[in-house]
Amino acid sequence: MGTTVNRQFGPKRRYNSTRRAENAAATRRFILESARELFIGQGYGRTTVAQIAERASVAVDTIYATVGRKPALMRELVESSISGRDHAVPAGQREYVQRIEAADTATEKLELYAAAITSIQQRLAPIFLALRDAAATDDDCKSLWHEIGERRAANMRLFAASLRSTGELRSDLTDQQVADVIWSMNATEYWVLLVGERGWTPKQFQKWLLDAWARLLMAA
After folding, report:
1. Which residue among 6, 20, 42, 115 has its CA within the 20 to 30 Å range from the CA of 135?
2. By C-alpha distance, which of 201, 161, 195, 206 is closest to 179?
3. Which domains does the chain possess?
């Protein structure tokens, strides 16, 4: 009898476990989507967890248990916008970074990175501007803003070294200068100026980045 019961109910338990995981993932996604819409639409400071819960049709405690408090929501939104996944991915594990490292020429590396930045900014720019504005008055957001900026700068130093290894960079520029030039032009603010305010298409922006970086950084 016991064997029969286990045979009957074993698969159902596995099915229920899968459904619970799927439901939990869907709930997390609804919460983050709701937080993103509100942070972008009315600002981080004016958004309450209760408003996010109402928009996502969940309880406030569900948000705390699933993602965390407001600073955790902002961090998750920024990290997932950068990675293009539903969670943070370290730079070295991102597919485009691995392709850049494998490329043989500086032109190939810059081309891959210009394409990656164009794709990232389409996801990142709206929430990153919300973070920037929140950083003016909220200590948690200020800390995250500086953390992301420093991380970008460190990654650009690694990128500059990768470009230098091809032997194609200008000899009168240090790796730090190369990193700073790329760091400034891959910023959300630069994207917003050209795409958001001047009406450039993403394709135009991508082409411009590659052309500008090649002219500024590579030896004649």
Report:
1. 115
2. 161
3. 1-68 (1.10.10.60), 70-220 (1.10.357.10)
DSSP annotation string for 45-105:
TT--HHHHHHHHTS-HHHHHHHT-SHHHHHHHHHHHHHHSSSS---GGGSHHHHHHHH-SS
Residues 59-73 pLDDT 10s = 999 999 999 999 999
Among residues 34, 37, 72, the alpha carbon closest in space to that of 55 is found at 34
- Cβ 206 vs Cβ 115: under 8 Å: yes
**How high is the pLDDT of residue 156?**
96
| Rg over CA atoms, the chain | 22
Q: Cα(124)–Cα(121) distance, rounded to whole angstroms?
A: 5
- Both tokens of residue 140? 């948690």
Complete DSSP assignment for the chain: -HHHHHHHHHHHHHHHHHHHHHHHHHHHHHHHHHHHHHHHHH-TTT--HHHHHHHHTS-HHHHHHHT-SHHHHHHHHHHHHHHSSSS---GGGSHHHHHHHH-SSHHHHHHHHHHHHHHHHHHHHHHHHHHHHHHTT-HHHHHHHHHHHHHHHHHHHHHHHHHHTTT-B-TTS-HHHHHHHHHHHTSHHHHIIIIIIT---HHHHHHHHHHHHHHHHB--
- pLDDT, tens only, 122-153: 999 999 999 999 999 999 999 999 999 999 99
